[in-house]
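re: ur question from yesterday

yeah so i grabbed the chain u mentioned. its 332 aa long if i counted rite. heres the sequnce exactly as i have it in my notes:
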Amino acid sequence: MKVIVPLAGKGTRLLPLTKRVPKPLIHVAGRPVMDYVMDAVRGAGLEVDEIIVITGHLKDVVETYITTHYDVPARFVEQKTLDGTAGAINLARPYVDGPVLIIFVDTLFDTDLSIAKTLDADGIIWAKEVEDYQRFGVIVTDAKGYMTRIVEKPSTPVSRLANIGLQYVRDWEMLFEGIAHVLQSPPGKGGEFYLTDAFQYMVDHGRRLFTASVRGWYDCGKVDTLLETNRYLLEHAGRARTPAGPCQRCTIVPPVYIEDGVTIRDATVGPNVAIEQGSFVADSTVTNSILGRNVRVVGGTVRDSVVGDDQKVEGKIVEQSVLDAGELAAAK
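ran it thru and got these structure tokens back, copy pasting raw so excuse formatting
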């Protein structure tokens, strides 16, 4: 099968970092978000013929990373007009000739993808029960777990099963027929065309889409949820790592991920902190934050924040913010 990965979005809720780093390549617990997703695909034993990557913002950075880090053939298609998720997936149509796995890689998930090899259905939509159902497309199912309706951001709780952006479609021809129908219809909110409407088209035309549950779903699209995901990976996914070298007069509060080549002196670091190599922390406090490479924190405090590579925090407090390229922005 082929894997379609839409990556065209700009990641505006993580500005200014996403001016330089594509959202799927932002680091959490020391690795790009996309690496965890690709690990999940490999771990499921799925035979992937090709990754079709829908690019846009910082497309050259995305192409370079994928071609140098993954051993699966990749094809890159630019989405020049950001007309929604249906428009993005439609760009892959000329290259699809069999079942597809669609992965929106601004979230991490904990589930068994291998059911795609055995389940007798026309497709699978993975979902997670949530309380804040108004933020998501939610799925209404029948008694056997097959989708009957999908509703974008409902005002009433017709369902709490949120579509997490992970789908397997065996009947790929009907998928693209549904997308063509959507693109010929009036656009939805924000002038965009939604892939979820194509799934509704499939169901309305007799196709069976099973709704599979996930054990965990972790958003990496904005500061607070990215930091929650960082905490989860440190606590439960084996990503915790304490300093290998000496730590002069410092207090480390687990869980943390601290790479070799990080210097910490007269400082308190943790909990829920990731710091990458070359960084220097002295006379400071860092809690619930992600610091990139070669970050310098001296006489300062970093709390509930994301700090990009090569940044300096000297004698000041950075709290609930994103700092990159000398630009500081409050978390959105």
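noticed a couple things. The mean pLDDT is 93. also Residues 97 and 172 are 8 Å apart (CA to CA).
anyway ttyl
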